Fold each of these.
Amino acid sequence: MKDWAVIFDVDGVLLDLTSAEEELFFQPFASRLDATQLSRDWNSYRIRNDEDIVREIVAQHSLAPLEAVKIADEYLRLLEAALAEGQLRSEPIAGAKELLRLFAPQVRLGIATANFKRAAELRLGQVGLWQAVTGLAFGADGGGHKTDILARAIAATALPPRQIIFIGDNVSDVKAGLNNNVHFIGFSQDATRRRNLAAAGARAVAADHDETRVIISSILGA
């Protein structure tokens, strides 16, 4: 059994979240309320998690609680169809595929994402990244902050936190890494975002996946 795990956030680390993908998330709401008025700022919601966001919007607009399940199911069906028909294209971060290929023989690879797990599977699968992380894949399903999602992934590894590396691009990812006592690497191609990650407590920050590779190798070799 491999004695290290490297866990990735998805959006901003393995994939770019396109505006078209973002809008598709809100499409199922359109038949129930004015979806154009819903915030596209993920940080504006109480819990940055697709499952919790759907529930929050449903509650705010006094929809029946069961609508949350229906909306999530409709979104996943729309996403699957749009990706299959080529209406949407997932956009991998430069170097992500090479990074996964390089470390797959050495460590367990996984994801801890605020996306629904099925959405992550569909999007990563389209660009050939799903298979590498499928054995340790955790998403929004079950709810909770990123700290909670990462904790579920950590529990599944049966490894101590000191043998786990988490890579994320958001301040909530930094908090998740710190709260779970794992090695954390902040990643962003945007300089301002990297400064924000460092200010939030990220000791290691990468601007591209060549830098990510070097930092991972350094941690593994320490």
Amino acid sequence: MGWTPMEQEGQEELIDSLGKDLSAILFCPVRYCETHYSKNIFECKHSIPFPKYMVQICQETGEWHEIIQRHKDAVGNG
């Protein structure tokens, strides 16, 4: 029996939920780029990376200020 990656149950729903919330908070489309970067990263249309763990913490706590400020500073709206 060879080793093959296995999808974790619920992972797709979590990624969808995180991406939807991140996009809504930033007013900017985002995509999940795990296959592109080989890391758990979301990226907005301005190519600003947001690690999944950071987005998940913000979603759980409701504290999005750091992510919003990071986006504003990078886009030039801060």
